[in-house]
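WARN  no MSA supplied for this record, continuing single-sequence
INFO  ligand: 1,3-dihydroxyacetonephosphate
INFO  echoing inputs
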Amino acid sequence: MADWRKKLAKASLADIMKAAFVHRILVPAFNVAYLPMVSAIVEALRRTETFALLEVSRPDITRFGAESFRAVKEAFDRFGDLSLSRLHQDHVPVIDEEGQLVDWSSLIDEALRLGYHSVMIDGSRLPLEENVRVTREVVSRAHPLGVCVEAELGAVLGHESGPLPPYEEIFASGKGFTDPEDAGRFVQETGVDWLSVAIGNIHGAISGVAKDQKKVEARLNIEHLKKIVERTGIPLVLHGGSGIRKEYVLEAIRHGITKINVGTEIRQAYEQALRTHGKIEEAQKAVTEKVEELIVTYYEIQGSARKLAEYV
Ligand code: 13P
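INFO  complex generated
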């Protein structure tokens, strides 16, 4: 194994993400909606020598084919490559997209027991104080194990089953955008490692006919992002990565967005190829190609793993 790969394989995820933030190198996070996507995503990372996270959320398990947090961890142990990737537990909500209370505590503990490298507690539907309290609790469990914690502040809409307000209305009003002052305070009080923010990004649909349709092309309020990054100083995360206009994405990376979550686009590539060809291998090929295309022509981060290895 090349020296840079040995170095990155040994580095902690916290250090890798800090280096990525300082040097403005994007670490994309690809959602595993079906188990065979694990090896397909890793193959694209190998071909392009790019560092990324593989991540899995509750909807990936309950609505699609990721099966369980354990099954994804087992697939990652088999096909993953620590010099190019780590495994993240995406979106453990305290209140879910249907307004139901979730047993977040057990889900987080499950990922910690399984050996996930990072977890996300999503208290964004709670009042600020409650979000702080729950996030601190997760940080106190994860950090002693060397596990990073992501939290969310603001409203990244899109996963709800009801109709959304028109996109232009959300963007123009800034309704639900992360408040920069709150964000500064939240980071101070929780000790969280990365913060997911709302600056115009929305999630792709996960239910109804909309889940199979092309997502709205979102924009980002970069001025708002600048205010958040000034007050927080930690890696910021953009959820709803599918279908954001490229120029906004590149500008956001220059201003502190370090992790972008991509779900809909690669899930649809998998499902579409499976419908057309009826073979899992073809669906995997479609995912590898899509991930490669995103890395090379959209984010323009091919070779990021070598660069990160220099800085950790
Ligand atoms: P998209 O499905 O819109 O790419 O969003 C993915 C995501 O944010 C998962 O947390």
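The longest strand covers residues 85-93.
INFO  checksum written, moving to next record
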